[in-house]
Every structure is written in C-alpha cells, then in structure tokens.
Amino acid sequence: MILQRARDFELSTRPVDRETTEALARRWDSLPKSAQVPGQMLGRKFTGCEATHGVFPKCNFACKPCYHSADANKVRIDGPHTLDEVSKQMKYLRRRRGWGTFSQLIGGEVSLLEPDDHAEALRIMRALGRIPMSFTHGDFDYDYLRAVAVGEDDKPRFPHLSFAAHFDTTMVGRADIKKPQSEAELHEYRGRFCEMFDRLEREYGITHYLAHNMTVTPENVESVADIVRSCQAQGWRMFSFQPAAYIGNEARWSEGYRQLTSDIVWSEVEAGAGTTLGYQAIQVGDTRCNRVTWGAYLDEQYVPLFDDDEPLDHRAVSSWFEAFPGNFVLRGRAESAIRAARCIAASPGVIPDAARWSKRFARRGGGIMQPWWRARPMTFVMHQFIDAADTAAGWEHMKAGTRATEPRIVEAQERLEACAYTMGHPATDELVPACVQHSVLDPLENRDLATLLPLPRRRNNTTA
Ligand code: SF4
Predict the structure, then answer these.
(1) How far apart are the CA of 393 and the centre of ligand 1, in A?
(2) Which of 55, 111, 295, 301 would suit a FRET pair with 448, their CA atoms being 20 to 30 Å apart?
(3) pLDDT tens per residue across span 98-135
(4) Is-contact 386 394, C-beta < 8 A?
(5) What residue's CA is closest to ligand 1, atom 8?
(6) Cβ atoms of residues 423 and 440 within 8 Å
C-alpha cells in the first residue's frame, strides 16, 4: 500500500504526465523540418491551441470578411447540441493531445448561448484539461457576463475567465454603433468591455484574461498603431491581429487582401508598441501563420521578454524549454510546486540562465530602478489565415500523403503541417487545422446542421 502510494505520488508529480509526454512527442515528430527549430513551442511546451466547431454556428453580426460559411446563420442555437458536441470534441482532443492546452469556445457568437449553457461548456472544457477562452463580438452586457460567471446561489462558478473579443470596423451590428466609421469610434466600446470584467472581479473575485482581436484590411491597417497606443492600458492582456484572407463566406470578401503582407501589418503593430517586436526566439508553429511577442508595459513603454538579435536570449529559451517540458496549466498549486522543484533539481543550470536573462530584460526596460511592480503583461499576436483555395490544395496533398510542387501550395502544405490552431473530429478520428475547417469542412458541416437544427419557422400572419 505504502509503495503504491509512493509510486502514485511519483507519477503525479512528474514534470509531464505520460499521456502528455507522448502527445508532445507525436506533435514534434509531425512538424515539418522547417518548424523544428530550437524555440518551437509546439511539441515541447504544448501541442497547440484548439477550438470547437459546429457547436453554435450562428452569429447576429454581419462582418466583412466573415470566416463562417454562408449557411452558418441557418442553424439554430441549441444548448443540448452545443454541450454534447463540446464534450465529444474535448474528450477527443484530450485523448489525442494530452492535458494543458488553450481552447477557444468558438464557431459562432458565444454570447447567443444561454448563460447556463455557456458556463457548462466552459466547465466541461476545464474538466478535460483545457483552458477555455470564449470568443465573442463583445456586444453583451454585464448581466449576461454575471449570469455566465456566477451561479444562482450568487457564488462564482469559476475562479478565472478568458474572453477574446473582436472589435473593428469590418463588423456590422453592434447595438449602439451599428456601422462604425472609424476605429477610434470603437475605443469607448473596447474600454467598456474591459470594465465589465473589472467589475466582475471587484464584486466576485473572478479574475480574467482578455484578448483583443482585430481583422486587418487595407481600409483599417493604418489605425492599428493608434488602437495599440490608445487601448493598451484598458485591461487587455493580448492584442491579436488577423490580416484579412480569402476564407469563409465568399459573399463577404472584398478586393485587396493580398496586398496586406504580414510585414506591413506587423510594422504597424510595432509602431503602436513603440519598439521592435521579435518573434523568432519563441515560435508557435510556422511564423508565416503566427508571430507572437511576449512582454510587459511599464506605463507607456513596452518591453519584450526576448530580443531576436541577442543569442543569449535564444539560449535562455532553450534552457527553459529543456528544464520545464510541458506546462503547469490547470494543475494544483502544490502539485505544480513539486513538479517545478523536480524540474530544477534535474536541470539546475536553468537558475543562472534565468538570472542572466532577468538582468538583460531589466536593462531593456531601463534598469532595476524602474517601477517594475507596475508592469502589465502584454502579448502581441498576428495570425494570418491561408486563402481557401491554397488550403484546399494543401490539404489534398496532406490527405494523399504527397508533396506539393507549386510554391504557393508548398507553403500552404508546410503551414498546415505546422498548424498551431486545431479542431478535433472524433467521428472521423481527425485533427484538422482551422484553415481547413473554415475553407473545406464548414460548408458541408453547416449544411447538415441546418437540417438537424433548423431555425424556428416564422409565424404565418395571413388569417383564414
Ligand atoms: S489555422 Fe491556418 S493560419 Fe492558423 S496556424 Fe493553422 S494553418 Fe496556420
């Protein structure tokens, strides 16, 4: 009995559990060589981000572009269907990708779910080792948020909530500002969204992580820097930018998306942050899909954690990845502390490496005399979807086990193979990149759902 307990304790406090270790190894092995770089997070820290699909496709906005398929709005929002599907998809992802991933509750507009259904979906995701993030247009009030976060007994249902809110001028339908004419007009609404979560924290102690999402088009790209500068102190922890792509509902496409290169958009983000934003020291999948910079604001000054041009920063990342494989997501504090202690005991060199990196980081921010206690963590992200036609061709090659030869399709195939944003399909036993989901699978899936969950019929007003 004692031996068994000791063995259970040893297993439960291993830096990474066996299932997750295997899932990480599979993910690493499946990456194309171009993505197997020292700072690659996939396959070392986590298996990638995830999202739900086909759970509540409907949305009450009319954005241009829109990544949902044309039939999405013909599907009724249905709580039992949502919960059943979320549960199946999350169980599948848990089995294929281990514990400790970030998962978006997405697929339509999440706030159209009844609060109890929304809360139950989050609970299911957490129970299966996912950190859920509700993805919304942000057009709901405090009463809705409280009803999701707090039970009928007036007690918090969750210690922490994550929401990603989409705010930009490509969107049409916000209650008080149906068709904004400039990004600056939306700053007030961006701020109000953050204030709702501050209030929830004050009243119920529920902490939050808020990501700001923006679709970038040739029309609004010049507003990116101002959004970052004007809204960085509102309470966001992430600014994520999606250059528009030819994906989703074709009726909502416009001209000129291909002129918007990643470099153009990223340079606007850098102008807003007031500094160079390195994205090579740590990489999430393929940098043609994702650029990510972690750092912190010291009042108005943004200080990135790593400098791409500093070899010692690259070494610090390698040292950290080797010492702390996997992550501590959704683990208890005591368990995490023991895991961390075991990691350090196995790789003591990580301590001096971390100390030297801290000195460099402090120097970048102006020295140790700066008011570091006021530092606010902030992550900048750019996620560039692949055009639907290229995705479909790249996916065909992946399914057939062949290699593309046309340069555009070679790129699409490599990016899909290194995808950092995946949907689970338990029925076909497939992990599917979100580009493939939106370009290839959503149209069929939503057509079937429109039959399964038809909209309520309109009442016939003619009298007999
Ligand atoms: S969803 Fe598409 S753009 Fe995003 S990481 Fe995957 S392949 Fe790249």
Answers:
(1) 14
(2) 111
(3) 999 999 999 899 999 999 999 999 999 999 999 999 99
(4) yes
(5) 289
(6) no
- What's the DSSP call for residue 233? T
In contact, 211 and 236? CB cutoff 8 Å: yes
Tokens linked to 72: 């999405």
Q: Which atom, in ligand 1's list, is nearest to the CA of 290?
A: 5
Ligand 1, atom 1: nearest CA belongs to which residue? Answer: 434
Taking the CA atoms of residue 12, residue 15, residue 17 and residue 19 in that order, the dihedral angle to the nearest 10 degrees is 180
Whole-number Å distance, alpha carbon 366 to ligand 1 midpoint, is 36
C-alpha radius of gyration, the chain, whole number:
22
Q: Can you name the residues that pair with 135 across neighbouring β-strands?
A: 164
3-state class of 25 per DSSP? Answer: helix
Ligand 1 site, CB within 6 A: 285, 289-290, 383-386, 415-416, 419-421, 433-435
Pairing outcome for strands 207-216 and 430-433? unpaired
Model pTM above 0.85: yes
Whole-number Å distance, alpha carbon 160 to ligand 1 midpoint, is: 27
Number of helical (H) and strand (E) elements in the chain, helices listed first: 15, 11
Write out pLDDT tens, residues 59-87.
999 888 888 888 889 999 999 999 999 99
Q: What is the mean pLDDT of residues 417-446?
A: 96
Give residue 355's identity as a one-letter amino acid code.
A
* Interval between CA 418 and ligand 1 midpoint (Å): 8
Q: Which two tokens stand for residue 92?
A: 């599948």
What is the sign of the dihedral through the CA atoms of 164, 160, 325 and 51?
negative
Which carries the bigger pLDDT value, residue 119 or residue 7?
119
Ligand 1 centroid from CA 420, angstroms: 6
Per-residue exposure over 174-186, b if at least 16 CB sit within 10 Å of its own CB, e if not: beebeebeebeeb
What is the per-residue pLDDT for 463? 40
Q: Quick one: which of 131, 144, 256 has its CA closest to 196?
A: 144
Rounded to whole angstroms, how far apart are CA atoms 218 and 255?
A: 9
Q: How far apart are CA 302 and CA 295, in angstroms?
A: 7
Three-state SS at 130: strand
Q: State the sign of the Cα–Cα–Cα–Cα dihedral 320, 326, 332, 336.
A: negative
Per-residue pLDDT tens over the stretch 343-367: 999 999 999 999 999 999 999 999 9
Q: Which residues contact 120 (CB under 8 A, 6 or more apart)?
A: 83
Rounded distance, CA 397 to CA 402, Å? 5
With the most atoms of ligand 1 within 8 angstroms of its CB, the residue from 41, 279, 286, 408 to mutate is 286
Specify the ligand 1 atom closest to the Cα of 420: 5
